[in-house]
Please model this.
Amino acid sequence: MLDFIGCGSAFNTALGNNCAYYKKGDTLLLIDCGSTTFAGLTRSSLLTGIRHIYVLVTHLHPDHIGSLGDLIFYSHFINHSRITVLSPDIGRVAELLKLMGVAGNYFELVRLEDRYQLKNHEIDLEIEAYPASHVAEMACFGYLLRGEAGTVYYSGDAKTINADILEMLYQNQVDLLYQDTCNLEREFIPHLSYEQLCQTVQTPFRSRVYCMHLDEGFDSEKAKKDGFRVVELKRKG
Ligand SMILES: [Zn+2]
Model:
């Protein structure tokens, strides 16, 4: 269901900041809008013909929200599309955008609570936020998306896989799991190490798990040999 504008970690400029999208007709759903995302969107002409943009925010690190202000300005002044920003933590998103001088009347903010139905004339998705274990100083969320194309979980930045989500994968209630996976194996790293991913996900279920948020030098071939899938870019961002 999801395509990606970028699938790299914060410093992996070659792959761009991790950002998934779902496009149908004149509607575009983005998960995050990191520092490189706006450039990727314009370079790939993904905003052409778009009238409705929804941005699901996982957390406030720059590689996840760094160009959201640019996208809002562009939507308001150039593209004339409606933009809606969704998060369980809208207060902090609003505060950050306000500090950047992005006027509140240029976008709509929606607080995600319980199971939120995102529905317009093109898309109909149920969105459920899950707290993700990332860093102590800010909240981070993963999102379970249920739609006509199936059920997917997007981890956001997370150093563990939520136990409920893993169980849902094993019970076939989650079709695809997109997981933040990093090269490093150190306790203080706020992402899930590849080694831990291997320890966590049972082999028969790995073909439904995508590695994303990839560091430079991530060994995609090894991951595929071990049974996982690795996010690849449909178009250069
Ligand atoms: Zn982060």
About this structure: The longest helix spans residues 68-79. The chain is about 25% helix and 30% strand. The helical segments are 37-43, 62-65, 68-79, 90-99, 163-170, 194-200, 220-225. The two ends are 18 Å apart (CA to CA).
